[in-house]
Design a protein that fits this description.
The chain is mostly helical and 233 residues long. The chain contains 14 helices and no strands. It has two domains: 2-173, no CATH class; 179-233, no CATH class. It has helices at residues 2-11, 13-32, 37-46, 51-60, 66-77, 80-86, 88-92, 98-103, 107-115, 124-149, 162-178, 183-199, 205-218, 220-232. The chain starts with a helix and ends with a helix.
Length: 233
């Protein structure tokens, strides 16, 4: 168990850095909106939806109607449908922790679970659980810190949201270096760029993911075959 925990902590260090910064930003903004730091703790504990939590701040202020809330929530978090599909079989084997694994599957956690190479002899289910658990703890800690320090921070915090982009870049680079077959990455980049051009910055994510999934499913056998061939070489 100690080795599993140590491995999980080591693997989640990049996420920890990003989540502490972004969680602090969320807690800070929530405090500025008039909510006690305990709200930051409760929201990060029960909602835990990253970018959606930032949108939630405007919801809590009562400036948006229920229909807009539903549509916005679906559009922002619809990408998680694709995350869940790829882990259906693995999560079925998680036993009692299965509901938590489904709940805690954020963008960064998904990226880690897809890319990790489990040390020989280590329980994959325990490793998956602790990676997910530690990531949420980092986010909760950052949220509480932001909520507590909200009235003490006087400097301009604009641009702090870029840390999420930086975190994705780090994870992408690590995945790129850990695999010999870069075709899926090229497909994802191409679909993202085309969707950005066609649908704009606010609406490109869902179409990009749909197109990427369709192409990857169509090329699945070729990608697997190419990966196996490169491993043999």
């Amino acid at each position: 168990m100690k080795e599993v925990i140590k491995t999980a902590i080591k693997l989640t260090i990049p996420v920890m850095v990003g989540y502490l910064v972004l969680g602090t930003a969320f807690g800070l903004l929530l405090y500025k909106a008039g909510f006690h730091f305990l709200w930051a703790f409760l929201i990060s504990l029960t909602v835990y939806a990253g970018s959606m939590q930032f949108v939630l701040i405007s919801f809590l202020q009562g400036t948006i109607g229920i229909v807009s809330i539903v549509i916005t929530t679906l559009s922002v978090n619809s990408r998680h449908i694709f995350y869940g599909i790829s882990f259906i079989e693995k999560f079925k084997q998680m036993g009692k922790s299965r509901p938590y694994m489904i709940f805690s599957l954020t963008d960064e956690t998904y990226s880690l679970l897809c890319s990790i190479k489990r040390p020989e002899g280590m329980d994959e289910k325990k490793l998956f659980f602790f990676i997910s658990f530690f990531n949420q703890m980092y986010w909760i800690l950052g949220s509480v810190i932001g909520g507590i320090l909200g009235d003490l921070i006087s400097f301009d915090t604009s641009g702090i949201e870029f840390s999420m982009t930086a975190l994705f870049i780090v994870i992408f680079v690590e995945q790129w270096l850990s695999t010999k077959n870069h075709l899926p990455a090229y497909i994802g980049l191409f679909c993202g760029i085309i969707s950005l051009i066609l649908f704009g910055a606010d609406n490109f994510l869902l179409p990009a993911m749909v197109i990427t999934v369709i192409i990857l499913m169509g090329l699945k056998n070729r990608i697997v075959k190419t990966e196996d061939t490169k491993d043999e070489v």
